Amino acid sequence: MRLIGLAVVLIVSLVVVPRAATAQPVKKVPQVGFLVMARNPGVEDAFPRGLRDLGYVEGRDIVLEWRSAEGRSDRMPALAAQLVQLGVAVIVAAGPEARRAAMETTSTTPIVVVGGSDPVAEGWAASLAHPGANATGFAATHPEMNGKKLELLRETIPGLVRVALIWDLSGAGSSSLIEWARTTARSLGLDLQIIEARQPTDLESAFRQAIRNRRQAVSVVETAMVFAHRTEIADGRVRPGSRRLASGNLRRKPDSS
User: Fold this and answer.
1) Cα 201 from chain centroid?
2) pLDDT digit string (tens) for 133-168?
3) Beta bridge partners of 67
4) 123 and 21 in one domain?
5) How far is CA 165 from CA 85, 190, 197, 217, in A?
6) Disulfide: which of 21, 36, 48, 245 matches 94 by Cβ 3.0-4.6 Å?
7) 250 located within any domain
8) Residue 121 to residues 104, 116, 169, 172, 247: CA-CA distances in angstroms?
9) Is residue 218 situated within a structural domain?
10) How far apart, in whole angstroms, are the C-alpha atoms of residue 186 and residue 182?
11) Residue 76's domain spans which residues?
């Protein structure tokens, strides 16, 4: 949170201070727009604390405007447009869906991107040293992490062979990430099946497909959509209101076949 806050404060200072030097005497408190797939109380509490550590007080120095898609990526463009219409000084875009919506909505409002695995491959940075355009930020995950998850599964479940990887493959750079996962699986002696899930409604069918194909374990690649529905996934209720999946098939000790 402190890193995000520092990036936001720096951008707000660059954007707002020059304007304040030419416009007197009324001081307008800059607004920071947050575009997220789902609300996260922990983040919403931590960010103001990070700002206070940097000497900024919410409401006095900065106003935070939160916009949540509530797990629905189709709502992102309208929410991004709302923030631009409000005249926010900067948009914090959490996750690829928020980043795409923000960058497609505005080419002038600064955007701080949170999340992603390869900014250059995903197309929102010209290079790590000089992102270009109106976006900056940092990557929260790396391709190596998905390989590490497969290693941890094999260590946790003796005799593990058949694994499913549930993934949203719509993002730029997915092909290289898939190859990385497959190469890692082969090196670990795992039979890897990749199942795509782009929307919340895809999750239940993805888990059922894993069960039908006798997968012994499932690894879910984190995206903003997955984060928004993490509780349902952990409980075996991958769609709000659906009956619990027969997820015991994925948790039992693997057979020897």
Assistant:
1) 18
2) 898 887 655 566 777 888 888 899 989 999 998 887
3) 35
4) yes
5) 39, 11, 10, 9
6) 36
7) no
8) 17, 10, 13, 6, 35
9) yes
10) 6
11) 2-138
